């Protein structure tokens, strides 16, 4: 039996025992047993045609893995036979065991080549994807984990949790909620920290509304993260342009509302900021002229007067911490060098 078929069969057999339409606490997926992982690893070694000494070394290592080992332990252990028989895997396993020194990544294109067996490909992609999440490289992690399925890996909880984190941080609301619900379908097989954080992420994502000031602030934080990682190419400029457009629209909406209030004779003024992030009636004392806030270079480098107009208007109409976020962001972006591809 091929190794990929072996793991898939274990997952399918266990899933078949579950009723259709799982509910929270009723596993919709289960990790393979230690014995199934051990057998798959040894079969993979045999298929590689390695010498007897390498096979014996792999056997000794796997014999030390108890049946009670966690799925995380099994994933780490699975890297051993890969590293013993494949020099590319050995370099990748060593890389994922080390702290990040910079944002340069090893060559991993080979992981998706047709001649790489699914057992090696899927689980090394999970190992790398998890390392990328831990180091805030969410786009790169999504490229590795985005199309993987729980039945393809020996630690499905880690896969689904990492997918949820990536989509949450990249504000992919639909995909994030799907990954979280899928994770919680197998809650009894998840580490408690995974389920606790998954519920927090779900509550947070459910409250995200596009084009609100909160949504804009999150995208600003994402730009800062990318720039801190040395990412300053077309992808970052695309996110920057989206934030500029959203701020333009938000300011224009505020101006339109003020004009409508003036036209209707509503001269109500507020003496304090609104308690929630929403458009309010009445009009403030300031005036804001809708202008482009930046471009593909000089991002965030607003003239002082124009920047202060924006911050004053936001300070009047929204809670004070939003002004702090945007003020810090403008200050940081103004200090950045022009983006280079």
Summarize the structure.
This protein has 341 residues and is mainly alpha-helical. It is built from 14 helices and no strands.
* N- and C-termini, Cα separation: 48 Å
Rg value = 26 Å
Quickly give the structural class: mainly alpha
Largest sheet: none
Q: What is the count of DSSP helices, taking H or I runs of 4+ residues? A: 14
Topology order in helix (H) and strand (E) letters:
HHHHHHHHHHHHHH
Helix content: 55-70%
Strand content is under 5%
Number of strands: 0
Number of domains: 2
What key phrases describe this protein's structure?
disordered N terminus, mainly alpha, elongated
Walkthrough of the structure:
The protein has 2 domains: 203 residues, no CATH class; 122 residues, no CATH class. By secondary structure, it is an all-alpha fold. It starts with a helix and ends in a 7-residue tail after the last helix. The protein is built from 14 helices and no strands. The longest helix has 30 residues. Helices cover 61% and strands 0% of the residues. It is elongated.
Secondary-structure blueprint:
Elements: H1 3-16, H2 34-48, H3 52-63, H4 71-85, H5 87-96, H6 118-134, H7 138-145, H8 156-169, H9 173-185, H10 192-206, H11 213-228, H12 234-263, H13 304-317, H14 320-334
């Amino acid at each position: 039996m091929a190794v990929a078929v072996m793991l898939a069969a274990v997952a399918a057999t266990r899933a078949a025992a579950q009723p259709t339409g799982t509910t929270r606490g009723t596993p919709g997926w289960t990790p393979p047993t230690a014995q199934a992982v051990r057998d798959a690893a040894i079969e993979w070694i045999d298929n590689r045609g390695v010498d007897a000494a390498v096979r014996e070394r792999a056997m000794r290592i796997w014999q030390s893995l108890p049946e009670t080992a966690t799925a995380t332990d099994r994933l780490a252990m699975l890297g051993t036979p890969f590293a013993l028989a494949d020099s590319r895997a050995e370099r990748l396993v060593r890389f994922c065991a080390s702290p990040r020194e910079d944002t340069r990544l090893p060559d991993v294109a080979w992981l998706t080549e047709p001649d790489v067996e699914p057992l090696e490909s899927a689980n090394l992609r999970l190992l790398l994807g998890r390392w990328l999440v831990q180091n805030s490289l969410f786009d790169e992690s999504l490229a590795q984990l985005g199309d993987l399925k729980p039945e393809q890996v020996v630690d499905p909880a880690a896969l689904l949790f990492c997918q949820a984190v990536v989509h949450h941080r990249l504000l992919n609301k639909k995909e994030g909620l799907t990954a979280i619900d899928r994770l919680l379908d197998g809650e009894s097989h998840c580490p408690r920290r995974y389920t606790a954080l998954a519920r927090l992420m779900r509550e947070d994502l459910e409250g995200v509304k596009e084009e609100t000031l909160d949504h804009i602030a999150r995208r600003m934080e994402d730009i800062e993260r990318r720039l801190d990682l040395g990412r300053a190419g077309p992808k970052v400029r695309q996110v920057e342009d989206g934030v500029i457009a959203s701020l333009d629209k938000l300011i224009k909406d505020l101006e339109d509302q003020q004009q409508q209030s003036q036209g209707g004779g509503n001269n109500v003024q507020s003496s304090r900021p609104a308690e929630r992030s929403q458009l309010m009636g009445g009009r403030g004392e300031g005036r804001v002229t809708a202008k482009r806030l930046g471009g593909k270079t000089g991002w965030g480098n607003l003239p002082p007067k124009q920047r202060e107009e924006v911050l004053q208007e936001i300070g009047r109409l929204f809670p004070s911490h939003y002004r702090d976020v945007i003020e810090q962001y403008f200050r940081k972006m103004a200090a950045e060098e022009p983006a280079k591809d």
